[in-house]
Amino acid sequence: MLEATKSPSPSNQPPLNPALAAEARIARIAVTVFPLLVVAAGVAGYLAPGAFKPMAPSVPYLLGIIMFCMGLTLTPPDFAAVAKRPWAVLLGIVAHYVIMPGAGWLIAVALNLSPELAVGLILVGCAPSGTASNVMAFLAKGDVALSVAVASVSTLIAPIVTPLLVLFLAGSYLQIDAGGMVMDILKTVLLPVIAGLLARLFLRRAVAKVLPALPWASAVVISLIVAIVLAGSADKIVAAGGVVFLAVVLHNGFGLGLGYLAGKLGRLDARARRALAFEVGMQNSGLAATLATAHFSPLAALPSAVFSLWHNVSGAIVAAWLARRPLPDASTTPPVPASSQTP
Fold first, then answer.
1. What is the DSSP letter of 171?
2. Backbone phi and psi for residue 283, each to the nearest 5 degrees, phi listed first
3. Which residue from 300, 334, 294 is spatially nearest to 189, judged by alpha carbons?
4. For a designed S-S bond to 289, which of 53, 111, 277, 304 qualifies (C-beta 3.0 to 4.6 A apart)?
């Protein structure tokens, strides 16, 4: 949720104005601090489960807050980017909903995960793009306009695509209530995003005042979700934690690498390939945790909690590495939309 960000200008272009430079610094700070908040929340949930377990029923409402914040950052130009480059956006959507669900299923089979953990990992793979993907694309000097477009569309179609993919890939492990998932995603994702969009359109001045605080608000809420999820499975973390961490690292790594490769095979430019790496490899783990808790068990939500931590750490590392690599088309920096999301 990085308002009015623009990619750093190449050497032959004017430097960023002070406001944009400040926002770039805010993005970097948020990406650095967010994993630390999640770690602290996870430790708190594990060490003091009694303090967080009673909050489990509030998880869907907490996710709704995050998605409302996402809606507040979206603007008409973000959606115009879809019409301008339908092929690139379509490639990103297909890559996201093919690579991550498929990788989740393959890893669950290869590691012989228990039914609950397998469903949890597959569910993470079937979720839409993660809310930090746009910031990572910005830091990596990627195509932020494409990143925002793919993230927005993947979120809007999630009420249909996510339940169908979970039913197809995880139905052999546990009974899947696809209809219930559709309704839950509509209530906790689509409606809050639309409400945020409407607020942005009709309450512009009020929204402008709160935009700087949205990244931190979302970071705190996501961290709280992680604490609640880990509190619910605290008694099983010691036994399952190692294999879950391995599964999540592999899952996220495949997503980042294959997402970049998909952009290369689709003959997209270097900036677009960087954007697709994050759009494919970073998931909305908050949604996955909410659905796992509501439809399965706290243990099924454990992969989502671990993913929430790891994909922000790995994303920040990959973004920093890519930012230091030269772009072959650096002289043709594309314009960046007026909004992107929060970690």
1. T
2. -115, 160
3. 294
4. 304
Of 107, 224, 92, nearest to 155 (Cα)?
Answer: 92
Cβ atoms of 35 and 226 within 8 Å: the answer is no
SS3 283: strand
| Cβ atoms 63, 286 nearer than 8 A | yes
Using pLDDT thresholds of 50, 70 and 90, give the confidence band for residue 49. confident
pLDDT digits (tens, 9 = 90+) for 215-260: 777 778 888 888 887 787 777 776 776 888 899 999 999 999 999 9
- Each domain of the chain, given as residue ranges in start order, spans 25-324
Please list, in sequence order, all residues whose beta carbon lies within 8 angstroms of the beta carbon of residue 213, skipping any fewer than 6 positions away: none
Q: How many CB atoms lie within 10 A of CB 186?
A: 13
Sign of CA dihedral 89, 92, 94, 97: negative
Q: Render the burial of 192-221: b for 16+ CB within 10 Å, e for the rest.
A: bbeebbebbeeeeeebeeebeebbbbbbeb
CATH pick for 25-324 out of 3.40.1360.10, 3.30.70.60, 1.10.260.40, 1.20.1530.20:
1.20.1530.20
**pLDDT of residue 2 exceeding 50:** no
Burial of 79 (0-12, 13-18, 19+ CB in 10 A): middle
Q: Which of 44, 280, 310 is nearest to 151 (CA)?
A: 280
Low-confidence winner among 55-59, 246-250, 328-332 (lowest mean pLDDT) = 328-332
Q: How confident is the model at residue 295 (pLDDT cuts 50, 70, 90)?
A: confident
Please report which residue ranges of 131-190 form alpha helices under DSSP H: 133-139, 144-156, 158-170, 178-185
Say which range, 2-6, 183-187, 220-224, has the weakest mean pLDDT.
2-6
Per-residue pLDDT tens over the stretch 264-280:
999 998 999 999 999 99
Cα separation, 194 vs 201, in Å, equals 11
Global confidence as pTM:
0.79
Chain-centroid distance of CA 327 in Å reads 25
